[in-house]
Every structure is written in structure tokens, then in C-alpha cells.
Please model this.
Amino acid sequence: MFKTVGLLLLIVSTTFVVMNCVNTKVPSTLNEESYLELGKSISASTQAVLGKNLMAAMGKGGPENALEFCNAKAIPLTDSMAVVLKTTIKRVSDQARNPNNKANRFEASIIAKQKQALLDGQNPMPEVHEVKSKMIAYYPIVTNAMCMTCHGKIGETVPQKTYDKISKYYPKDQAMGYDTNQIRGLWVVEMNKE
Model:
């Protein structure tokens, strides 16, 4: 019994330490660069949690199992991270797999600008914009080799079995045909300006 209580206390205290590593309450005297750094920390923390869980799902059952994870848990896990980090965070794309992740017109314009930057041989840069009393930051999501298993080209990097599972979970999928080092979408981080 004491071991169980001790383990529970360790888990709870570790959670509080992690929660306090990213402070999302920011004085309004900060400049845009400070908000970009804060948002980068938030998006990186969320990406790390999603990536860890995605890799675990892949390890347990390959891409098909990873798709089940993404379908059932990617948005709720992102929402949970937003609660822990005391902010609003989401992933969006102009070629969304899940319609709930479809970029709005403004987000799509940022994605287009970042795609053009890559085509011009430049690094896509994050942006921050003030909207009412919030600072909203946009960070590019760039594809890598791991992404190709589910977002690449059918029959080349995406096996038919995987594509069949994608079609089952996402009948309106638009998130295929990517190569590595392309803009897949954005992390959008909304921070309170206090």
C-alpha cells in the first residue's frame, strides 16, 4: 500500500513540475519575439507528447495502429495539453485529414506563404499576430521521413493496407501526396495577453 501511495505521489509531483515548466501567463509588456518563443515552447511540448504517443502506437501495431491512435486521440490529447499548458493550441492544414483540422482562410494564407518560402529556398518562419486581447502564433509543421508512411504517395511510401485504413477513418482525407520537407500545416497557439 505504501508503495502505491508513494508511486502516486511521485506521478502527481512530476505532473506539477512539467506543468510549471511552461508558463503561459505573460505580462503585456513582452514583445512579439517573446510571444513567439513562448508559443514555440508550447507547440514543441505538445508535439513531443503527440510524437511520443504516435511512436508508441506505431511500435505496437504499425501505421494502422497509429491511425487508430490519431483518429481517436490526437485532438483530445492536443486539447488536454492546452489545459495543462493553460492556452489554446491546435493543428491545422490546408490539406486536412480530419475536417476538424481544416485551416481557416487566414491560416491558409500563412500556410501558402510558408510553402512559397520553402520553394524559394528559405526557411518558413513562424508568425505572431495580436487579435483582440490575445497573441496568436503560427508555427510551420514540416514533413519528415516518418510522416511519409501516412502522408506520402500511395504505393510508394504509403502501403495500400495503410491507405485502406486512412480511407476508413477519414473518407474526406486530403492529406496525401507529400514529400519530405514540405509544409503539412501549422501549429496555432493562442496566448492571453495580460
